[in-house]
What does this fold into?
Amino acid sequence: MNEIDCAVEKLRTGGVVAFPTETVYGLGADARNEDAVRRVFAIKGRPTDHPLIVHLASAAQAEEWAAEIPETAHRLMERFWPGPLTLVLPARIDVPRVVTGGQDSVALRTPNHPMALALLRAFGSGLAAPSANHFGAVSPTKAEHVRTSLGDKVDQVLDGGLCHYGLESTIVSLLDGCPQVLRPGALPLAALRDALGDGGIELADLTASIPRVPGALVAHYAPVTMLEIVATENLAARAEVLLVQGLRVAVLRCNQGLCGKSILLPPLPQFLLPAQPEAYARDLYARLHQLDHFAFDRLLAEAPPIDEVWWAVNDRLARAARGLSRVSE
Ligand code: TXA
Ligand code: MG
It folds into this structure.
């Protein structure tokens, strides 16, 4: 039996299978099987009121989950599926509320990864799948990240190599009139504007207190190593202060280009990320996972530019930083 058939058999009997997508690895279970979905919450340590995304083989399956599919949803699915866009729509009455965190809406997406699509086609129905990491930790962008953190708890890990985007999907709610971005992500805002026209999209208040999107919790996406975001011109001075305190400090810098200004730093380990937002996003989580192994006391991340194209990256970096400050200070 090949590994996809093997995974499908496990999913049909209530198993939990980690699989690659073009964004990050997902932790999949049959979205119609409440016990299997409960296992996903338990494995992640995720509060049960935080809804999961239902992954589909194609847009044709959306009507099995959504009570209503507005014209805008059809347009977005046609243009961006398979791809890194999740749509929140009114849920059909028969969608298990354990998947939607008790809400009457459901999040749907068709991932653009050959292995994910093969799995979904062979399975034939929706797979509820959050990112395959412990709740609050950095999402996995390689099978190895999943094996290290959850390997002994899941029934199978499908290895599809490095995730193309390395950052979660963009989430858009189509519940009330104007499409609303609930989470910035791998699909750029400019692409949505292009599809919907100017004024065709609203940005949610990501700091709103009700965690409809757990990504909006401060301690989300946090690595183990404490991280601070520091403006380029303050890096040297901040590093000196921490070194004097006897801390083991490393610096995560943007490579030459947009945010790469030449500065003189004290001698300490430096790690580079590309100065282009998509490439930076692709490498960020893998780099944070890797840096955790070095057990530095503090990681100083050079602040990327404040610009819309860096929105998703700045969002995840800010959460990583705030999550850690909460834990350690
Ligand atoms: O790229 C991705 O979206 C990855 C891959 C595996 O597809 N998945 C992912 O899942 O990031 P997760 O569970 O880590 O984040 C999904 C987000 C959560 O923040 C959740 O609250 C939101 O989707 N969500 C799901 N259903 C929702 C709903 N009905 N209303 C609002 N937000 C919803
Ligand atoms: Mg997640």
